[in-house]
Design brief:
With 213 residues, the protein is of the alpha+beta class. Helices cover 41% and strands 15% of the residues. Strand 1 and strand 2 (89-97) form a beta hairpin.
Length: 213
């Protein structure tokens, strides 16, 4: 779909590849530390403890990766969501289990971040517009998908996705594996050259172009 390719190109243009690779590495490392910290918890506490440790440790790792790449993260503090900045985009993260992502809408902070994505939403409704809107801002989420069971395959994410929701987090029209974004950096990016070269008057006279129709 053309809109998805346009979003992918926009991500490539605004996110440095090294930043994306650092985020991937940080989220996996944070998840592993969280799993190690929760090990040995009573079965009745394990799911809650693992989720809490994942929030803390993946937040810290995400913030460190953003800071190292100059992506200006917001401070790590309590339950607050760490938000980075790269080009026209805000960068946030989200942990989910396999299945619907309904719980994402419970966060007021995420709803505020997603509110800026109205221009992204318009890209996926081309019939309503004469031409595709120019996206000037938006929020992208790095989504770590975990197994439902805290006892099995819980050490790290089953996969990490890069996703752009509509305002209200009611749908995620762009949602691709992070590996697809990394692969996109090796493809040529279409760029429109709006520059119109203009000859100086002295050059026009020398070439005999002055006054020609």
């Amino acid at each position: 779909m053309k809109a998805r390719e346009e979003v992918m190109q926009l991500l490539v243009q605004n996110l440095d590849k090294n930043l994306v690779l650092a985020i991937e590495e940080a989220l996996v490392a944070g998840a592993r530390i969280a799993h190690a910290n929760a090990a040995g918890m009573h079965e009745g506490h394990l799911a809650h403890a693992l989720g809490t440790w994942r929030h803390y440790k993946m937040n810290e790792a995400f913030a460190a990766a953003l800071l190292a790449a100059g992506a200006a993260p917001t401070p790590v503090k309590g339950n607050s969501i760490v938000v980075g900045h790269a080009g026209i985009l805000k960068l946030a993260r989200l942990n989910v289990r396999s299945g619907p992502w309904d719980r994402a809408r419970r966060s007021t902070q995420r709803l505020i971040l997603a509110a800026a994505n109205d221009q992204f939403a318009e890209l996926f409704q081309p019939s309503l517009f004469d031409e595709a809107p120019r996206v000037s801002e938006g929020t992208v989420f790095f989504v770590s998908v975990f197994n439902d069971s805290p006892q099995h395959d819980a050490e790290e994410p089953l996969e990490i996705l890069v996703a752009v929701p509509t305002p209200g987090l009611k749908s995620w029209p762009f949602c691709r594996p992070l590996s697809a974004l990394i692969e996109a950096y090796s493809r040529p990016v279409d760029q429109v050259d709006h520059a119109k070269p203009k000859l100086k008057a002295s050059v026009r006279r020398k070439n005999g172009t002055e006054g020609q129709q």
